[in-house]
Write a structure and sequence with these properties.
This protein is about 40% helix and about 20% strand. β6 and β7 form a beta hairpin. The strands form two sheets. A five-stranded mixed sheet has the order 2-1-5-9-8, with helices on both faces. A four-stranded mixed sheet has the order 3-4-6-7. The longest helix has 28 residues. With about 190 residues, the chain is of the alpha/beta class. The two termini are about 30 Å apart. The structure holds zinc ion.
Length: about 190
């Protein structure tokens, strides 16, 4: 048993390295343009802060797009929140021709239909290798964290969703991987 753990431990290093190489490769090879759009009410300080975080991490410039209203057809009245997949379709429709990808930041809660739940609250959603992703701050703020902790969560979720649009899938080999599936839990530590 001990030996098995040893080999598993040895495996984590190359797998972790491989993930970072893939991530770095994507940072280097994405030469397109990405736009950040505030959807509905969201503090502009958060939007500006997130723009810089994405730029610093991925090393591509982000264009701040004009604020847009939340689309009424995406509103899910029974739970007072917005369907994230419908928000992605909406984003595809409003994406300026000059932008390759668009990330939306919302304060309202967002959700999707899953195999087991009709309406499952989430922190973010993206099309894998696609052009749109959305991040909600609603769940990041629920336990009223200190600003630094809130910002850390926001950065992790946003970089994760942008990673999906760059074609990165979920990883499970390391707790330190940015592309871990949060499964509704805060992306802390
Ligand atoms: Zn994900």
């Amino acid at each position: 048993m001990k030996q098995r753990k040893y080999w598993l431990g040895l495996l984590i290093v190359p797998v972790g390295l491989l993930i970072w190489v893939i991530l770095y490769y994507n940072q280097l090879t994405f030469k397109g343009k990405i736009g950040l759009v505030p959807l509905g009410q969201i503090p502009s300080g958060q939007v500006h802060w997130l723009k810089k975080e994405i730029e610093d991490f991925y090393h591509f410039s982000v264009t701040l797009l004009p604020r847009q209203p939340l689309p009424e057809p995406a509103f899910y009245r029974p739970r007072n929140r917005y369907k994230a997949d419908l928000l992605l379709e909406y984003l595809q429709g409003i994406k300026p021709a000059g932008e390759d990808k668009i990330i939306a930041l919302v304060q309202k809660d967002i959700s999707v239909k899953t195999d087991t739940h009709e309406d499952w609250g989430i922190m973010g959603l993206a099309w894998l290798g696609g052009s749109c992703c959305v991040v909600s701050t609603f769940r990041l703020d629920k336990d009223h964290p200190a600003k630094a902790k809130f910002n850390e969560r926001l950065a992790k979720v946003a970089l994760h969703e942008v990673g999906h649009t760059l074609g990165l899938e979920h990883c499970s080999q390391s707790i330190y991987c940015l592309m871990n599936d949060a499964r509704g839990v805060y992306p802390d530590d």
